[in-house]
Amino acid sequence: MSNDESRGSRIAPAIAVGALFAVLAATVNGATFGFEAVGFPADASIVHNLGYALFNLGAYDVATVPAEGFLAAFLIAAVALDVAVDGAVYLAKREEDGSVIAAVGGAFTDGGRDGGDRR
């Protein structure tokens, strides 16, 4: 295939991508986002309310901010971080001669010295 044929086959997708970008840019530019100034009261503590929601202590009537949405995000992030740490520990293991050795296995030995003397 020559350069002229491959160049001609690339023009149509390039024009389509450019047109799609133009439509997307015009849509975003013309959109009106009806956001109002929102926020939490100045004296509200998100962490405090999250703790009360976590332990289901709503009976104490201290919740000035509904924290259930924050609680879901907090628990999802906690599970994701736990999976990441477990994966890192699993990947830190190495195999020697077909056996799995822990990453910290050498830290509790004598370092390979003969006789096992610790000096």
From TrEMBL:
Membrane-spanning residues: 70-92
Entry keywords, A to Z: Membrane, Transmembrane, Transmembrane helix
Protein name: NADH-quinone oxidoreductase subunit J
Organism of derivation: Halorubrum sodomense
Organismal lineage: Archaea, Methanobacteriati, Methanobacteriota, Stenosarchaea group, Halobacteria
